[in-house]
Structures are given as C-alpha cells and as structure tokens.
Amino acid sequence: MSPSPQSELVINGDYYTGQNSHRQSAELRPGGAGILLKTTTEERALAWQDLKISPRIGNTPRYLHLPDDGVFETTDNDGVDQLSRQCSGNGFARLVHRLERHLGLILIAVLVTAAVTGLTLTYGVPWASRVIAYTLPDTVAQTVGETALHSLDDTWFEPSTLSDGRQQALLNHFAPYLGQVGGQQLRVEFRDAPVIGANALALPDGTLVFTDDLVNLAEQDDELVAILAHEIGHIEYRHGMQGMVQSSLLFWVLVMMTGDLSAFSDPTIALPAFLMSMSYSRDMEQQADDYALQTMLSHNLNPMLFATIMARLTEEDISTQEHGESENNGYLLELVLSSHPISRERIARFREASESHFNAGN
Length: 362
Known about the structure:
Elements: E1 11-16, E2 23-31, E3 34-39, E4 43-47, E5 52-53, E6 62-65, E7 71-74, H1 77-86, H2 91-101, H3 103-135, H4 138-155, E8 158-159, H5 164-174, E9 180-181, E10 184-185, E11 187-192, E12 200-202, E13 207-211, H6 212-217, H7 221-236, H8 239-258, H9 267-277, H10 282-298, H11 304-322, H12 329-337, H13 344-359
Parallel strand pairs: 11-13
Antiparallel strand pairs: 1-2, 1-7, 2-3, 3-4, 5-6, 6-7, 8-11, 9-10, 12-13
C-alpha cells in the first residue's frame, strides 16, 4: 500500500497543554506550511520547527513536544514516522530508528561491545595503570603506604612478638639490601598476624612487612633475604601502585556501568579494594622473581634459598587446608594479601638457577 497523501494523514492521540494534567483527545495533521492540532475546544497552527518528535522505541507511545510545554501523545508510530519524514531535520532520528530495528547490526554491536570491553579490561586497564603508576609523584606512594599500614594495624596486624634482639639482628642482616628503590626508601617492619600466617608484603612507600610466622618458618636468615629481594622487586617496579590504580580504574568502570557513586564513600569497600591490589598478576610476580634472582646472584646467595622457603610455605598451605582452616576469614585474607603466590614453576626456576650457577662451580 502506498503512503497516504499529506492531506489524508491524521494522527489521533492525547494532548496535554502543559498547564495542568488534564488530558484532551486530539488529532494532528499536516496543514499548509505547518501542522494543525485540533482538540475538542480549539485548533492550533504550528510551524514544523516548533515540533520535536521523540525517537521510536519499539511500539511504545511517541511524544511530540509542542510550544508552551504542550505534549501530544500517540501510539500511532507509523503515522508519526510518516509525519517525521515530512519534517526537516529528522534524518538522524530516522537513521537511529532503522539501526535499532536491524537485528544483524544489533548482534554486531553486542559482539563489538563485548570485544572492546574485554580488550579494555585485559590490556587497556593494565597498560594505563602502569603508565599512571610511573607518573604519580612519590609523595602519593608514601601517603598510600602509610595509610595502608595504619589500616592493617587497626584490623589484622598486631605488634610483633619477636624479641627486640631478634628484630635488630634481622634488620642488621637486611641492611645491605635496604636503600632507595623505585623512588622510595626501604624499611622493614615486623608484625604478628595470626589471621594471615607466614607472609610478607611490600607497601608502595617502601615498607616491607614480615609476619612473625614467616620469620619463625625460616631455617636461616638468608631465606628471609630471598623473600626480601622478591618484595623489593615489587617496589622497584611499582607493582603496589599499579595494582591500586588498576583497582581504581576497574572500580570507575563499575561505577559508570551501574551509575552508583555511593560506594566510593564506603570504607568497607575502599580497604578491600586496596588489599586486592596487593595480589599481583603473573607478569608482576615474574618481574619480582627476576629482580630477586639477580639480587641473590649479585650478592653470591644461592637461589636454592628462595626455592627452599617457598617449598616450605607450600607445605604449610597444604597443611592448613587439610586441617580445615581454609574456610575461615584468615585464609581468605591470606589469599588476598599474598604477594608471593607459590607455584611449582617458580620453585623449579630457582632450583635450576642454583644448579647452573653454584653446582656447576660458577
């Protein structure tokens, strides 16, 4: 059927004057150089440019906005489409409507959106986090580190139970490795953290925290030096700041998707967000391992020291799980805070380096 001539086009609907909520039955039709609006009480002549037509969304009612806040509502979408074709300046709206109804383009748009989102989260956000982490001033890392340690002291950390003599002996043993790295002055802190267990972590401000359980697990102090070198690697490459920035960017993505800004003011979300940033990626762990291995070789320390204590940590984790402690909050927190997740590949790498540089007589 061919479209009706302009003189035959009549769109029926309801008219709201904008002055009150009273609804009037009305009709809209092209007339002369404009549009005629006819109700039971009046007839108005409107210019084309006075008419603003809402885009079509399925078969939902359309709204035609008139001067003086008047609104004409109708379910005659086909009639409105025909009217819009006669109005200037509505080409874009018609294009959008056609695109919205094209199933193939909708599927392509969904796939493209999913691909772009995946690539952004997988590559874009980590790359941006790395760039931002290196451009942020050192004072930001200092503030973040101090705040993080204060928060951890208020929640899961307790004062160390190690004697003053033991702590000082370890600090003296660590001294040759403690300098300025990644723009931060390194320092070591000891804490008792039963809820975390044997662990160590590096804060962005250069603070290296060793738990009492980790110190007690070591059979010789050079094993702790191996762990120390690994944690220093995280500071050298600013992994803590990268993780924090990445968490923030992902959080912003979540906020933009949900439109909920209230979470930023919730401390129960802010602290876990930082703690999650302490769980490093595989690439970050490899960088820290590279740094630790080079440090140990340059100080003539056998890489087997690192492999040995990591293997011992593996045995402890297995024992913890076998005793059912993996279901408590402490084990979950350990998974979040773990800055040195253990793998057979990592242990094997240091064992091979030991055989290559020491057993071979190099």
